[in-house]
Amino acid sequence: MSRNPIPWTPADIPDLTGRTALVTGANSGLGLETTRKLAQRGAHVIMACRDREKGQAAMESIRARSSGVDLNLMQLDLSDLSSIRDFAQRINDHYPKLDILLNNAGVMAPPLQYTRDGFEMQFGTNHLGHFALTGLLMDRMRAAEKARVVTVSSLAHRMGSLDFENLDASRGYQRWRFYGQSKLANLMFALELDRRLRGARETVQSIAVHPGYSATNLQRTIPGHSLFNAVTAQSQEKGAYPSVFAATSPQAEPGQYYGPHGFQELWGMPAEAGIRRLARNQEVAHKLWSVSEDLTGIRYAGLDR
């Protein structure tokens, strides 16, 4: 099934001079391309990267192609709550406002691993890390005019379920099922955040996106990924279009989910993406929110239900 693309191209990205954006996982893949696009249009972009050396190389690659871009590299490990707290404190100390937060970084289908705080790596990094980061930066987004939180989910959310009795994988682990769970959590978080922001009459907006099937470093966990990428994947640049659209376009609506318009949402230009029924279940979303607060210790002041 194909959907009608939204009448938008990268040429429609507005002038972002004076706006501050933060992109997690900015050193490669979709994060790198999103950073490049935002910076080329004048945004000051904070590149939040776990590996400082790789982040430095990525920043230099952007500067080599685009002179005069305004970039700031900062180290952030989303699998470590202490790193997230330290990072957020530095942002809060040095930036009066944050216009765009792009929750992009993630891990995909590794062998069973745990974060520093004891969470299963995919749920801990992809969801809990971004849940904590967003909550800690909410005041800086409130200080901006219609700030946007863009959270990157995946087509894999369709194969996910939230097993609240086995979030730590103590009762068994299947790496793709747990990846789907983390991406379902990303989407449900974005939708629940939108509901809470609307309920509190906040100006901050929450939007979810997915990149379709794009040739990124994440695919290295898939056997035969090089062949699949060459034959079926769209480029990293095109995979970043939904993120860039959601972060910058006046056509992007809070509470929506955007992805590629083409066959099975695998590739193409931004369009409204399909959301499975479970992802819209507000009772489950509320439980996910409560569990995330308990696990991270982060509370969103003023956004209680």
Explain this structure to me?
- This protein has 305 residues and is α/β, with parallel strands linked by helices.
- Helix 3 (81-94) packs parallel to helix 4.
- Helices cover 40% and strands 12% of the residues.
- It has an 8-stranded mixed sheet with strand order 3-2-1-4-5-6-7-8, sandwiched between helices.
- The model is unreliable at 227-231 (pLDDT under 50).
- The longest helix has 25 residues, at 175-199.
Summarize the structure.
The protein has 305 residues and is α/β, with parallel strands linked by helices.
- What is the straight-line distance between the termini? 36 Å
Computed structural class = alpha/beta
Strand order of the largest sheet: 3-2-1-4-5-6-7-8
What average pLDDT do the residues reach? 94
Shape: globular
- Give the biggest beta sheet: 8 strands, mixed
The count of DSSP E runs of length 2 or more, i.e. the number of strands, is 8
Order of helices and strands: EHEHEHEHEHEHHHEEH
Number of helices: 9
SSE blueprint:
Blueprint: E1 20-24, H1 29-40, E2 44-49, H2 52-65, E3 70-75, H3 81-94, E4 100-103, H4 121-142, E5 148-152, H5 175-199, E6 205-209, H6 225-232, H7 236-239, H8 241-248, E7 257-260, E8 270-272, H9 282-296
Parallel strand pairs: 1-2, 1-4, 2-3, 4-5, 5-6, 6-7
Antiparallel strand pairs: 7-8
What key phrases describe this protein's structure?
305 residues, alpha/beta, eight-stranded mixed beta sheet, 8 strands
